[in-house]
Amino acid sequence: MQMLMPEPQIFVERTLALIKPDVIDKEEEIEELILRSGFLIVQKRKLHLSPEQCSDFYADQYGKMFFPNLTAYMSSGPLVAMVLARYSAVSYWKELLGPSNSLRARRTHPHSLRAIYGTDDLRNALHGSLSISSAEREIRFMFPEVILEPIPTGQRARDYLNLYVKPTLLAGLTALCKEKPADPM
């Protein structure tokens, strides 16, 4: 009788979180909420961006009316950049953040982080990546030394497990069974 094994799945996704300059004094409190929400803080650093670096980071917002204010605000003091990991990290982080406008967040999502810590549309306390691809780009920007390998999912994950993990496990477990050591650990 053959035992049925559940299909292997990889549940980790990464996203970028920024604690913005106006709430840097709430760093520990915010990190505690992040951890209690099931995230793992994979990397963290405190930095102070120049207006030019902020312009590069928010390049997709270039040309919008609020862009000069955004770059001035984001370069006004230190911030904390974190790589967060968990299952569906991007969507869970966006949900925890709430709407980007803190005033609207207070009305529609009163328990969200932006409702609690933000003050208005610009000073909304925290940043979150909008998608997996933007998360990868933003993580590379804030952590240039990090090596981001794509996380295989679906068929790619099954192929990886079948090609690399299962044969290694099978060889190791077979050798263990043949040896039958007194203490297999």
UniProtKB/TrEMBL annotation:
Family matches, as SMART domains: NDK
Protein name (record): NDK5 kinase
Residues annotated as domain Nucleoside diphosphate kinase-like: 12-150
Gene3D superfamilies for the chain: cAMP-dependent protein kinase regulatory subunit, dimerization-anchoring domain (1.20.890.10), Nucleoside diphosphate kinase-like domain (3.30.70.141)
Keywords noted in UniProt: Kinase, Transferase
Recorded name of the encoding gene: Nme5
UniProt keyword Disulfide bond present: no
Top-level taxon of the source organism: Eukaryota
The keyword S-adenosyl-L-methionine appears for this protein: no
CDD domains reported for this sequence: DD_NDKH5-like (cd22970), NDPk5 (cd04418)
Similarity field: Belongs to the NDK family.
GO biological process: cilium movement; CTP biosynthetic process; GTP biosynthetic process; negative regulation of oxidative stress-induced intrinsic apoptotic signaling pathway; spermatid differentiation; UTP biosynthetic process
Cellular component annotations (GO), alphabetically ordered: cilium
Lineage: Eukaryota, Metazoa, Chordata, Craniata, Vertebrata
Pfam families in UniProt: Dpy-30, NDK
Record GO terms (molecular function): nucleoside diphosphate kinase activity
InterPro entries: Dpy-30_motif, NDK-like_dom, NDK-like_dom_sf, NDK_H5, Nucleoside_diP_kinase
